[in-house]
């Protein structure tokens, strides 16, 4: 009986075109014959051309006779070997050459479920030609091994396969994330239109074909115009014969029409499978029918496997380098955060390498209402970026991943967002801490190999989706999307989120502990001046030592005022309010001289030297700058030998104030945290046992509020600890 096909009694319609079961077509190509046996060696299926090609008629339900296959014992032995081993393991196909019925064949035997399929493929070419191809294959493999990039691998592969097989055109496809494929390398006959650089839609290779390309990596259509040979079956085997691994499997009529529309007479494809996925393909076209010996095809298949292995190695090496660098960067970010440093400051300090690791065009960093950007210019873009964390706060997930601009917030006037790709990582839920990688719109002109849309047509197979009739280049501009993040970048982002979230949790817990300790120190520090005030009041009540008590009261009140001012400042800064500022033109020279005089009067045992210009004016808040300088002078008094040096000069549009004192260098492990609040190193320090460790932090915030900076350095040749404050001489542009 005729072996059934799932499409019998119907057609490849619009409903089933994409679901056509191409692995069970019920027919084979006519350049060979097929016989299927059960595991006892009995014939279950045979192609209708066995008698014509092999010269005998197999009997269903019976084993092959010794005289069948011209009585050639080596062919019978090959089949018996597969029959004997089939039940024990899944084995690769076995093959050999044979002369049968006066013609040359490649005999290929493989296991398919509980059947053994024997295929007899007509063989073209003499032994010398095959040997020549084998030598070319060997040389080509050596060339491939020396390539170090994907493109060079594919360029070498297409040249080698064309030399081995003689096809008119050999192309290397590289599939994208959406399964569309780009022709990235090509070797083509000079008079043919090149296809390199064109893209072919994912619909050109339906899902079921993609699966077959993965499990059976080589397929040959020797003659596009062939007439399929039906498979006949024993009455006891009415299930379609699975030809997934067959070399003679008949192909979909829609695919035949597709190739015919391209003007192709013969086709061969070799899959490049990386990590179990169809990564790419070597596609071969000939303008007329062409048969390629099985041994040469296997050499091409081995080449594709080497190609896949090389691609996997190249990708693995690149991925390992990316992941290792990202691990180093993650440590550089999370370690200081876990030790109490401000996450925004740390992230901003590493913005450039972080942006590179995430493959981003720009970054948005936010925490507790404060927003920092990197790589964003223009008022409109900056305004959109500053509003983005508010929109992200409405999202439930800790990772927000968007690749299309239509899903992102727009301006009030409906202006499309300046970025289309967003990969946002929320590391602090309560304070809305976000690391946001942005990608701009990818405005891409795609060179399609023909218009990718399929059309409905009525033909011999009924109404269906027809393949493209023209493969002339068809261009399409794609907008509104960003290049998607790849798996490695997403893994790096996930690990960064995990590490940063943990570090931030540690930071918050440590800050809470240090705050508790701070309030204890503050309570202790306030008791001393309050006690002094109480004693002074009692003495005044007795009417004695009025002048001395007046000085005690002033000093105690001033100390309490400074303590409370620092606490109020830290409260404003920690709550994101910033420092209250009243900026006016300020002569720094006059202010420095005034503060030096006040300090030396208050502490007669302290000596302050100075080197100042006649005048130097900056836009600043006089009270805040006084607070900054006083903190640094006090720092020098507490930690030095009693002598403080002050230098004020102009440098590159900035006023530079240097305050130094002779002392041992600050320990290296403390330097990164000098300007952090709530430092455990500052509490109870020998040089200033009542200090709370807020002075340098507030000084740094004052400098930053004036668009300036403060930095520590040590001059070993003089044994000097130095703090440099830089402030712009002009008002910053709005």
UniProtKB/TrEMBL annotation:
GO terms for biological process: detection of visible light; regulation of DNA-templated transcription. It catalyses: ATP + protein L-histidine = ADP + protein N-phospho-L-histidine. Signal peptide: none annotated. Residues 149-305 form the Phytochrome chromophore attachment site domain. Keywords: ATP-binding, Chromophore, Kinase, Nucleotide-binding, Phosphoprotein, Photoreceptor protein, Receptor, Sensory transduction, Transferase, Two-component regulatory system. The keyword Transport does not apply. InterPro entries: GAF, GAF-like_dom_sf, HATPase_C_sf, HATPase_dom, His_kinase_dom, HisK_dim/P_dom, HisK_dim/P_sf, PAS-like_dom_sf. Residues 521-731 form the Histidine kinase domain. In the N-terminal section; belongs to the phytochrome family. PANTHER family: PEROXIDE STRESS-ACTIVATED HISTIDINE KINASE MAK3, SENSOR HISTIDINE KINASE. This is histidine kinase. It comes from Aquabacterium soli.
